[in-house]
Structures are given as C-alpha cells and as structure tokens.
Specification:
The chain is an alpha/beta fold. It contains 14 helices and twelve strands. The chain is globular, with a radius of gyration of 19 Å.
Length: about 300
Amino acid sequence: MSQEIKNVIVIGAGGNLGPSVLQALDSDPQFTVSVLSRKNSTSTFPAHIKVHEIDESYPENELLEAFKNQDAVILTLGFVSFETNKKIIDASIKAGVKRLMPTEYGSDTANPQLVELIPVYQDKVNVTEYLKSQEAKGLTWTALVTGPFIDWGLKVGFIGFDLASQKATIYDSGTTTFAGTTLADIGLAVAGTLHNPEQTANKKLFIASLSTTQKEVLASLEKATGKKWDVQHTTVKEALAVGQEKMGKGDFAGGLPPLILAGLYGAEYEADHTKTRELANDLLGLKMENLDDIVAEVVKG
C-alpha cells in the first residue's frame, strides 16, 4: 500500500489549534483537506473546504462515511474521553485510513511525573497505547509534543502573563526553562509529518519554536509594550495546592490551569524538551524562532 498522503480530514478544526492546522494543510498543494464538525457546532470554515457533519456522539456509520477515501485523520479536539478517541481510531481502521494524528500536542505525557500531577493526561497516554496495539491492522500514527502554544498562551493570558492589564505572575525564581511552540509552527509540523510518512510512522515526535524562561518572557513583553509590568510572585507549591484543592472539589475548569502551570514552571517536571528529547524540527521543516519576534507579533495583535 502506498504511504503517500493526499486526502486529509481534520477533527476539531474550529478550536484553538485547529484553524492553524487547517490553514497549513489547505495552503499545501499536496493535500485535499476536509473537516469533520459536530452538527451543533457554530464554527465556520472557508467555502471551498468540504465539511462533514456528525452527531456529537460520533456514531460509527457517520465516521465511516466521513473517512471514506481519507488517507489521514488529524485530531485537534482538546480534552475528550478515551472512548471518543477509540471510536475515531476504530473507524479509521475500518475505513482504511493510513495515518492518524491524535490530540497529543502540549506537555510531554511520556513523563510519568507529569501524568501523575495532571490525571487527565492519562487519557492521552491511553490513546497512544491503544494506537500502538492496533498497528498490525494497518493504521499508523504520529503524536506531536509541543509544549504550550506559546503565542496563544500569551494572547489569552493562560501562562501567567495578562496583556490587557499588563500584569505578570512569576512562579518560583522565574528562571526555569520551558519549551513552547507557536500555533503556526504546529500547523507546519502536522503538514511536515504527512510529507514524511515513513520517517514519522508510529512515533511520538518533539518540536519547539523556542526555549525560554518566565523572566525572559516578561522582559520581552515590557520591551514590546514599552511599559513596566506589575509583577506578582508565587510558588509552584502554591499552584499545586490550589489546583489539587479545586480538582478535589470537582472544579475541573478552576483546578486544571494551576496544575498545568505547576507542570510548566516546576523544575522537577522538566518542561524544556529541547534539553531532554531529540527534536524533530529539521525533519518537519521547522526552525527555532526568536522570542522577541513572537511577543511583538502577539502584542501587535
């Protein structure tokens, strides 16, 4: 069976990451791209892109219809259950899909300390293990570890820097390095993966746009805005306590962000995979970027 990938369907193309992945694939002449969207979704897409609508329970017959003649299925769904992922994987196998890219992205879930800290990551681990168990059936897979979406995180204030109020929260010393990747680079990495199907088959790949620290980000933001920011100091230990307390009360939305930040800024969680893993940047056509350039673009809006 030829490994060349042409027909690609993106699931979750209306989310935070999906539009960048869709744009990278759509602008590449090798690929014919379509979208799988829930029937109750309000997301809109360019008129030339075919949209397959599906019930939010992801029934097999609708998945099989959407996956007909597809070479690759790309998931950018955020946190969804293992059961939903399994439905999509099983339908991909039945439909003869060649490559599936799960919703990995983000943190390095191969780090057991991190998975213990953030239990929802266990679903990502389970998805990868299930994909490995299904390899003999002909479906290959690639998972991308990216670190935080650095430009998105700055734009929405997720990683401790609030552009609107020009306030920063620095955890511990602020000098622990972490790796991050821009949304655009993740999109390019997905396209690069599909351009290199043999070299990327059945692997977890690590990419990054930069390695930096909180203090470096703060300095860059002050440079780009031309203003001194208000800085609040806290600790990773405090973030852990807040996150675990809220998660213990069932407050997922309130508890998950501080746990993710603890995993990002706590030195023991090794969030800088440019130091701990081999990067696939060269294979996938990515270059390391300049922090000031990224920040300036975010500030400019």
